[in-house]
Write a structure and sequence with these properties.
Radius of gyration: 28 Å
Strand order of the largest sheet: 14-13-15-19-20-21
Number of helices: 18
Largest sheet: 6 strands, mixed
Mean pLDDT: 88
Shape: elongated
Length: 630
Amino acid sequence: MRSRTALIFLGLAAVLWISCGVSAAASPYGQATEPVPTRWISPDGLPRPTHSVPAPKGPFSVTRADQWLSVQSSPLPPAGPQGRVCLVVEDGIYDAVASGVATYQQDLEDDGYQVTVYRFVSGSAADLRSFLGGLYDESASLVGAVLVGDIPYAIYEMMEDWDGTGGVDPAYSDFPCDIFFMDLNGTWGDQTEDGEVHASNGKYDARSGDTDLEIWVSRMMTSNLAALGTETAVLNNYFAKNHSHRLRQLGDFERALVYPDDDWSYLGSEDRSCVEGIYGAAGVDMVSDPEETTAADYLSHLPLSYELIHTRSHGYYGGHAYLQSEGAVFNWVYPSDYRTLDPVALFYSFYVCSGADYSYDNCVAGTAVFNADSGLTAWGSTKTGGMWEDGSFYDALTAGHCFGEAFRVWFNTVQFQYSSLAPRWWYGMVLVGDATLPTLFFEDVPHSHWAHRQVEEVAGAGIVSGYPGGLYQPSWIVSRDQMAVFMARAISPPTGPGSLASYVPPASPSFSDVDAGDWSYNYIEYVVANDVVTGYPDGTYDPLGEVTRGQMAVFVARALAGDEASVPVDTDGASFADVTLGSSWSWCYNHVEYIAGLGVTQGYQDGLYHPEYACSRDQMAVYIARAFHL
């Protein structure tokens, strides 16, 4: 077994500090203060190997997976409100993962995407880029693509001058470059002669023209993650895990960890500020003191309840290291540690040299994302460098955008601001896993919202859904027809007798103001049949009327007790001064006392229940989540 502690020989350490520097340096280009770059450091001290260009298996060939028709003869439906996403699945594994892909496709369509699935039979990276460009140019356009399996990738090469002053000779670097697929309108060339960079060798070395990213691309490559299992088993597990997350079944931890190692400790407050936009100040833990950031300490944090982990450290594809003893010792965190601990975190920012290079076996980012029970999305680099100036990335996530769109916005922002830095810093940036995921299921219910957890729980249970644009509208008042829908979904068994699915409503409406053709008719009749609501003495239901907190107590109490007759009669005395047997709200007294005794409601800070207040959508979510133990 390799020792977790690796001493760096003096000569290697000298080269490292000369090439990296030990603190941030002003850019020689006069545009930004660059951080210390992440550099390739491996426990055995071996130099970074070069990459071979993947050889195409044959001429370009793809087929529509859902129709088995030629691409040219398969008209595509218009894009959904979230835009169109293309899933490109390796043909050789498609049959073994078809069920998982179908579930994933349905999940995306439920989120408002229009999805098309293709089997990639053969072709080169250039062929695939042209194909994606063709989809982008169609009227439905394209917002992103997910590449599943061994899908070709482009290699970019360059001579990197990290100090810009000639003090250190430029070093050769080549790396997988998924930016190639995202920049559909730019011109990519292979004509440069510069040191070890050579023209016409199949590796791109120049990029010009319109270099904005038009789409995002993420990758699900598991053929070389053998330590996790077989290629298709790992993918199928991932699709199942992803689906569970979309049902809010993987947990909602509402916390993040910011963990920059010594060379980037000064960036800690900036990193924390970015992440706080999503999780709030109280939801972010940070360890940035150089005396505290160690591999052992990082590993002790991994099992804790963090949804997102943001770390900066040196390393290579097979691990990342944290400095100790003033840089004389690197203590390592390996992919095997992620497999053993299986952290609960779902999202990772790896500012680690080559930590996201999916072309290597069992890379750090791939292991974290495709782990058994956790991990969904990671962003990092296939080369030296990594994400910084990432405020626009986290701003986009805070606004409710998915990781793919946040990545696209960030890259275009920093490329415009620091164009001469972009090739060596950011051309290796990639997205691993599902880039359609957001950090927030509803843009207007951030982690800092008081009812965030309950809103996501009732949404995950299928009891509520949001509005177009990824909104929940937590402050909107719940109407009586909406409440009937929510309560019907909450009390219904999933299937079988007594479920909504098997319920046959009466031919004649129970209320004069609810017609059989109304959108909520079946739900209203279902909750009437289950003695949750009774309507008004004049024979109306008032479907558009506001639900008060008094009415909410009645609905919930009857649902929990089984019917009105089973709601217990309170004999302990009033819990709230404004709901008593002698008050005008005596009609809901027993109901309020019943649900208060069950911990469903606690009233307001003034000690009152306020039954007259209208019930908002966030309050409704809390009532239902507590009542039904979601």
